[in-house]
Amino acid sequence: MSGVVFNKDKRFDLALPEGEAAETELARILLDPKVEVKHDNGCVNTGNLFVEFKSRGVDSGVRTSEAGWWAFHYSPVGFLIVDLRALRLIANETARNEPSRVCDGGDDGTSRGVLVRAVDLVPWPKGWRSR
Rounded CA gap, 125 and 120, in Å? Predict the structure, then answer.
């Protein structure tokens, strides 16, 4: 099988179909012209991502985006790619349950949004997430 590297006990072949499916899905996401990329310098230090919903008094960000995916560039070596429908649900839930996380931010502090914990955007097995 060309392009596949096996280790000595050949255990990689057990995950080959799942790996190929995941690679295909990632390629589909990255090639989608409707991926919105957000840069968040503070996430590495705070663990939070600013999810904008209003700018200069007008709905924006997650409320108006037509993208299917948001890619958060949170460090020089890391991206977190999130389905926009899931991001909307989590951002709304966070704003509703923790209103103190709703704040000003973005470029020159002209946007309104919610600080979502990056860990809340990762589908952890039940019981693994801690707040």
Answer: 12
